Automatic annotation (TrEMBL):
Job of this protein: Catalyzes the reduction of ribonucleotides to deoxyribonucleotides. May function to provide a pool of deoxyribonucleotide precursors for DNA repair during oxygen limitation and/or for immediate growth after restoration of oxygen.
Protein name as annotated: Vitamin B12-dependent ribonucleotide reductase
Entry EC number(s): 1.17.4.1
Similarity comment: Belongs to the ribonucleoside diphosphate reductase class-2 family.
Keyword Cell membrane: no
Residue ranges of the region described as Disordered: 858-895
Catalytic EC class: oxidoreductase
Cofactors required: adenosylcob(III)alamin
Keywords: Cobalamin, Cobalt, Disulfide bond, DNA synthesis, Nucleotide-binding, Oxidoreductase
Biased amino acid composition, Acidic residues: 870-881
């Protein structure tokens, strides 16, 4: 794919250069001089093996960077051998290595009007990076400014034809890309099916058989020489004669995994025996046409076509084939779906070739043998203290970043020459954003709401509009991309489609309206300036997973995703960790008009329960604002689809996102998601039903598959032998204690009887001065609870169900351990919990005695003797003590004086709790709240539970990803 030499010479023509405006910086002041720097020790362990996997002491970072961010950047991005002078020792060296390379290339290729513009570009880029306003994708940090090849792209699309030379070349090219730590995708539809003949007269092998060889290669090479799996995407057109075999390939392998697991083999991802299973290193997607989807709607026949001459060699029932796709996705999460006609209708370069495939995460869709470098803006950085959005700076940063991204193509290296040639000719870029979920919550908008979608659409429209505006301006300085002349009409048509989609946005709030006005103005400039200059870039925007770089920017949410959970696991400076309620929640509640006392109570409730249901004082109409990706109020599947549909018309590429469905979801629900995705104009979509995959390792404490299989067998035997629960009656003479109490002025008596081992076996409730009806009801209730206890219902189950019930009488009690109660039931079961449950169980439920609460204020811990003299522990103690003196939040002065406090406890003190030693990530914390395991893989580097980021998984502990981000 070679463009004309005339186009190349046009790109070299002299121009005036770009005028770079200041956004954040001050003339004469370097951004580093405006930041307080501190040195930290980065020590990383695998919590399972207790092995130290990384250690670098004295690394330098801004004081406002979290421990997680500095750890991930140090371990992932610092270059040079550990223990040598060549090793980078701070963020300044890393940022200088990258930024100065971009500035040098920008000067050499005529991007800047003057030396002053080059300096402003350097300072603004540096400021934005050290203040976590945006980040480049990981390959930039790995490679730019080093002696390694200057690879800047994370996303690649390959090409394979119907010949053995091409197929073997596919294996080789994928291997080099995996070795470099990136991922690739390709479409196998040109390969003849197993139902067609070879020229020799024999039958062709078909693409699925060649997938087996590529899968084995990927499993051997892995990614970047690491232990995680390679990232790859395999696409097959829906009219390929082998489409049914392709659809069912991974579902059949999942059956094999189950059978081997039940036989005692270790079939976890990364397990010793999983290598015997095929096709596990790729995401599979079916490329469907509008013709096929209409046939599904109408229940018509659909033709499967020969790869050689395009003739129909077999007809199938379209609806039946579509349902097979949904059934396979229900069974194993593959295949996903890509909507071919929609993708190519938004294609800016159709004269050069069709878009047939995507990268592994499905956000980059472009020509074969091409690549895309990505960067993402941190949306929350543009929300001012007064909850208004800084539209001007958002647009200015987008234009700054897209300029830097284009400059990188001037010096970048590529894994193959065809990829390099296509990228230099079309200069595809992928600007996007992270923290959308946090921004929506902070501004009081539900993720699945019209207001949330209107804001997201406006933000995305302005982002892409600003990027193409700057692209058109760069074309006037350094020339349009080489392939533009041939595709000019198509490119301009797509720009008008984006502009028309922008006109369809209906703003619901002042913030949306302001952003939308800026977007409208930007698109007017795009069309006007582009008509004159053309465009520097064939593509401008995608929404990537932002896994590792999301943690680098200290984002609460990745990409387009909603918040993962309301309570987060947070590491502290100097070691240790705490359970912290998402900092966005108090901000959102304050913006909604709640009083400080109510906010504290709601935050306390969230810290105890992990959700907002029945939070004291919270209006039910505000619940949706705090809906999350998982948990008690998980966003419905179609809520995710509708959000994707709201932003898709404003993206050059697509969206890396998986629509999560609960375990009880049906095949029909997945089919509905796939059908609605087509109707709503999405380009690509994947669905994942919880616990559908066996090969996803859960936190099993290191037990082997054989142990688990044996345990499962024992459980089955036990279930047969003990078909019914057995009542364990109390002895005739048993110990008991009676507690008198008063709740809201109503007096009563609680008598609790125990077994010989002092576990609770019965309760009696009596109330003075009450009518006979209430006395009878309470007697019946006492008997019911007592029988439940004797049949083995755990006391903690009753405590979970009956605490926080609200009805009269309620209010003050005469019990120093339970000072306030929302009802008699709330008091009774809190008292029982204090008397009969162990500390760990009560701590999880947020139930503590007066002595424990006092100890927590004194030492920073509810446990006796767990205080520490470390400066970081003292900082936590100071923060908790300040809360006891009615200081609700850390002031700006305190943050400046005690940066470690900001990192340890940056929200109201009730939101900060010590976490048990068995919790090592937010995903594991959510498991604790939910009482069930999350269906996500374990990080093979540090052993913690990963969490979803787009269509990949990312480790909160070390930043490792399961995909190409």
């Amino acid at each position: 794919m070679t463009e004309t030499s005339a186009a190349r010479s046009r790109s070299r023509r002299a121009g005036k250069g770009l005028k770079i405006e200041r956004i954040y910086t001050t003339p004469g002041v370097h951004p580093y001089d405006e930041v307080t720097w501190e040195k930290r020790d980065v020590v990383q362990q695998n919590w399972k093996t207790q092995e130290t996997i990384f250690e670098q002491r004295g690394v330098e970072f801004p004081d406002f960077w979290s421990v997680n961010a500095s750890t991930i950047v140090t371990t992932k991005y610092f270059r040079g051998a550990l223990g040598t002078d060549a090793r980078e020792t701070g963020l300044k060296q890393l940022v200088d290595r990258v930024v100065l390379t971009y500035v040098k290339a920008g000067k050499e290729h005529g991007y800047f009007a003057t030396e002053d513009d080059a300096e402003i570009f350097e300072h603004e880029l540096t400021y934005a990076l050290i203040h976590q306003i945006f980040s480049f994708n990981s390959p930039v940090w790995f490679n730019v400014g080093t002696s390694s090849p200057q690879q800047v792209s994370a996303c690649f699309i390959l090409s394979v034809d119907d010949s053995m030379d091409s197929i073997l070349n596919w294996y080789k090219e994928e291997g080099f890309i995996f070795k470099g730590g990136s991922g690739a995708g390709l479409n196998l539809s040109r390969i003849r099916s197993s139902k067609e003949l070879l020229s020799s007269g024999g039958t062709a092998s078909g693409p699925v058989s060649f997938m087996r060889g590529a899968d084995a290669s990927a499993g051997t090479i892995k990614s970047g020489g690491a232990t995680r799996r390679a990232a790859k995407m395999v696409v097959l057109d829906v009219d390929h004669p082998d489409i049914e075999e392709f659809i069912e390939t991974k579902a059949r392998e999942e059956d094999k995994i189950r059978a081997l697991r039940d036989a005692g083999f270790d079939m976890d991802l990364g397990g010793a025996d999983i290598v015997s299973v095929q096709y596990q290193n790729a995401n599979n997607s079916v490329r469907v046409s509008d013709e096929f989807m209409r046939a599904v709607e109408e229940g018509e026949e659909f033709g499967l076509r020969s790869r050689k001459d395009g003739s129909v060699i077999e007809t199938v029932d379209a609806r039946e084939l579509f349902n097979k796709m949904a059934k396979a996705a229900w069974e194993c999460a593959d295949p996903g779906i890509q909507y071919d006609d929609t993708i190519n209708d938004w294609h800016t370069n159709p004269e050069t070739g069709r878009i047939t495939a995507s990268n592994p995460c499905s956000e980059y869709l472009s020509l074969d043998n091409s690549s895309c470098n990505l960067a993402s803006l941190n949306l929350l950085k543009f929300l001012r203290e007064d909850n208004t959005f800084d539209v001007q700076k958002y647009q200015a940063v987008a234009e700054l970043v897209i300029t830097a991204m284009d400059i990188s193509i001037c010096f970048a290296d590529f894994p193959t020459e065809p990829i390099g040639e296509t990228t230099r000719n079309f200069r595809q870029l992928g600007i996007g954003y992270a923290n959308l979920g946090a921004l929506l919550m902070a501004t009081g908008r539900g993720y699945d709401s019209e207001g949330g979608r209107a804001l997201a659409a406006s933000l995305t429209s302005l982002l892409t509009g600003a990027a193409y505006k700057r692209s058109a301006e760069m074309a006037g300085v350094v020339g349009a991309y080489n392939g533009y002349a041939r595709n000019a009409d198509a490119h301009k048509r797509v720009m008008r489609k984006h502009q028309a989609a922008n006109d369809e946005i209906r703003s619901l709030h002042a913030m949306d309206s302001e952003i939308h006005k800026a977007a409208t103005k930007a698109w007017d400039s795009v069309v006007k300036v582009g008509e004159k200059n053309g465009y520097r870039n064939a593509q401008a925007s995608v929404l990537a997973p932002t896994g590792t770089i999301g943690f680098m920017m200290d984002c609460d949410t990745t990409g387009i995703e909603p918040d993962f959970s309301l309570v987060k696991f947070k590491k502290l400076v100097g070691g240790g960790s705490m359970q912290i309620v998402n900092q966005t929640i108090p901000r959102a509640l304050k913006m909604l008009g709640y009083a400080e006392e109510t906010i504290e109570a709601i935050v306390e409730h969230i810290a105890d329960k992990g959700h907002v249901i029945d939070a004291p004082g919270l209006k039910t109409e505000h619940y949706e604002i705090f809906d999350t990706a998982m948990g008690e109020r998980a966003i419905k599947p179609m809520g995710h689809v509708r959000m994707m549909a709201a932003v898709q018309p404003f993206l050059s590429g697509a969206i890396s996102k998986t629509v999560n469905l609960p375990e009880e979801a049906t095949v029909e629900e997945i089919a509905e998601v796939y059908m609605e995705g087509w109707k709503l104009g999405l380009k690509a979509l994947a669905a994942y039903r919880d616990n559908c995959k066996v090969g996803q390792p859960l936190s099993d404490g290191g037990s082997t598959a054989k142990d688990k299989s044996a345990a499962a067998a024992e459980a089955k035997v036990e279930k047969i032998v003990e078909y019914r629960p057995v009542r364990k009656r109390l002895p005739k003479r048993r110990a008991s204690q009676t507690t008198s109490f008063s709740v809201g002025g109503a007096e009563g008596y609680l008598t609790a009887g125990t077994y010989d081992d002092e576990t609770l076996g019965e309760i009696f409730l009596k109330f003075g001065k009450q009518g006979s009806t209430l006395a009878g009801v309470m007697d019946a209730f006492s008997i019911a609870v007592s029988i439940g206890l004797q049949y083995g219902v755990p006391l903690e189950t009753f405590v979970e169900k009956f605490t926080n019930l609200r009805f009269e009488p309620a209010g003050l009690t005469d019990d120093p351990d339970v000072r306030m109660s929302q009802s008699i039931m709330d008091y009774v079961f809190r008292r029982l919990a204090l008397d009969y449950l162990d500390f760990e169980t009560r701590d999880y439920m947020g139930i503590h005695s007066a002595e424990e609460r006092a100890r927590e204020l004194e030492t920073g811990s509810y446990l006796a003797g767990s205080g520490s003299s470390d400066s970081d522990d003292e900082s936590v103690e100071d923060e908790l003590e300040s809360y006891s003196q009615s200081v609700a939040t850390t002031t700006k002065k305190e943050k400046a004086d005690k940066p470690e406090v900001v990192d340890a406890v940056d929200v109201e003190a009730p939101a900060a709790r010590e976490v048990s030693t068995g919790v090592h990530s937010s995903a594991e914390l959510m498991e604790k709240f939910q009482g069930k395991s999350a269906d996500a893989p374990m990080c093979m580097t540090c052993g913690t539970k990963m969490q979803r980021a787009g269509s990949c998984y990312v480790c909160e502990g070390c930043g490792s990803t399961s995909g190409c981000s």
